[in-house]
Design a protein that fits this description.
The complex is a heterodimer of chains A (about 120) and B (about 110). Chain A has about 120 residues and is mostly beta strands. Helices cover about 0% and strands about 50% of the residues of chain A. In chain A, the strands form three sheets. In chain A, strands 2, 5, 6, 10, 11 and 12 form a six-stranded mixed beta sheet that branches. Chain A has a four-stranded antiparallel beta sheet with strand order 3-9-8-7, with no helix packed on it. Chain A is globular and about 45 Å long. The mean pLDDT of chain A is about 95. In chain B, the strands form two sheets. In chain B, strands 2, 4, 5, 6, 9, 10 and 11 form a seven-stranded mixed beta sheet that branches. In chain B, strands 1-3-8-7 form a four-stranded antiparallel beta sheet, with no helix packed on it. The interface of A and B includes residues 33, 98, 100, 101 and 103 of A.
Chain lengths: ~120, ~110
């Protein structure tokens, strides 16, 4: 069974600094998708960024980028120029590309931004 | 564009009562998912539908839980009878059938069973 592990329950960073959140996963599939979702105190689940496993290039969305290491099964999220609005729970998630559509989530990392 | 709409946003009820959670997916989306979020178990999939047909209900915890999707624009998750351990946030999400499309989540229903 696929599993997703986020080893950092909590992280904090100074405003305007850069922070990296870690995620590892376990799968025997070769084609799949990886996602980072943000959950602020308002409880919404907001898609931050996604990566297709067959693409070697790391995905980037403005201040958010990933470091995707397929062989190591690692998928970290880097937030540059951290802003107070980035404070939230961040969840890493996995989905196979074909067949079952369900997302498998990690346990989450709570990110605090210090002003 | 309207996102996934869930109702109610909060529900507080007594043990033993029937609870019905509702979801309206994004128009045109082919998949609908129900997730549950708890501190102990995190986010876990309960059931998902494709074109209104249940595909995988292996995450439904027990017979007290049931889900229906009578049409493309509406789904319900029902708990009968409810128990305190059912207290959680329940999310509905929808997505297109295209292979690389992400799931879009509703704002969730916070359910408290007393």
């Amino acid at each position: 069974a696929q599993t997703v592990t986020q080893s950092q329950p909590e992280m904090s960073v100074q405003e305007a600094e850069t922070v990296t959140l870690s995620c590892t996963y376990d799968t025997s599939e070769s084609d799949y998708y990886l996602f980072w979702y943000k959950q602020p105190p308002s409880r919404q689940m907001i898609l931050v960024i996604r990566q297709e496993a067959y693409k070697q290039q790391n995905a980037t969305e403005n201040r958010f980028s990933v470091n995707f290491q397929k062989a190591a099964k690692s998928f970290s999220l880097k937030i540059s120029d951290s802003q107070l609005g980035d404070a939230a729970m961040y969840f890493c998630a996995y989905r196979v590309s074909q067949g079952a559509q369900k997302l498998v989530f990690g346990q989450g990392t709570r990110l605090t931004i210090n002003p | 564009d309207a996102g996934v709409i869930q109702s109610p946003r909060h529900e507080v009820t007594e043990m033993g009562q029937e609870v019905t959670l509702r979801c309206k997916p994004i128009s045109g989306h082919d998949y609908l998912f129900w997730y549950r979020q708890t501190m102990m178990r995190g986010l876990e999939l309960l059931i998902y539908f494709n074109n209104n047909v249940p595909i995988d209900d292996s995450g439904m915890p027990e017979d007290r839980f049931s889900a229906k999707m009578p049409n493309a624009s509406f789904s319900t998750l029902k708990i009968q009878p409810s128990e305190p351990r059912d207290s959680a946030v329940y999310f509905c999400a929808s997505s297109l059938q295209l292979y690389n499309q992400p799931q879009h989540f509703g704002d969730g229903t916070r359910l408290s069973i007393l």
